[in-house]
Amino acid sequence: MTLVLASASPRRRDLLAQLGIPLEVIPADVDESVLPDEDPVVYVGRIARMKAGAIASTITDRWVLAADTTVAIDKLILGKAESDDEAGRMLRALSGRTHQVFTAFVLARGSRMHESIVATDVSMVELTEDVIADYVACREWVGKAGAYALQGIAGSLVRSISGSVTNVIGLPVAEVIAALREVGGPLPRFVAGTPS
Known about the structure:
The chain is α/β, with parallel strands linked by helices. It has 7 helices and 7 strands, in the order E-H-E-H-E-E-H-E-E-H-E-H-H-H.
């Protein structure tokens, strides 16, 4: 059975592909704007449900996986920076502090739906202005919530992580596998017991 990924994120696609889950990517086109004073957990849940609903309404014979990830500090949502200046401001806000990464994921098939939200605490080292300027200049932050990519150079800016590491990359893999097992969806070869 093929899992339908309702996301254009190459990181989510790669995480699932590494597990050997048969995958079809059909990105959902939804408005991801944050509502006024919206809580980060409420926000990611709302967007993940919208993505799942948009694709599951047209594909009813397979499980659809939708997800949304955001970075938050002091309940303030740090989405994808739109400019070098905005990326620098985000990194200054995260410098030397612990922030949260929230991912909501939804599995939907017909009228069945399973939803989960995973939180990870990430502690950054103190970032000097030179480090921030160099990181912003490398452009790795483009398209990343919170203006950094844990799986890249920014891994050197992180002091510690409490919780799912893959959640910070964009999809809490262990939790997704557990949910797929629960609903009877497609599983990785090593979990399903099929030959690799």
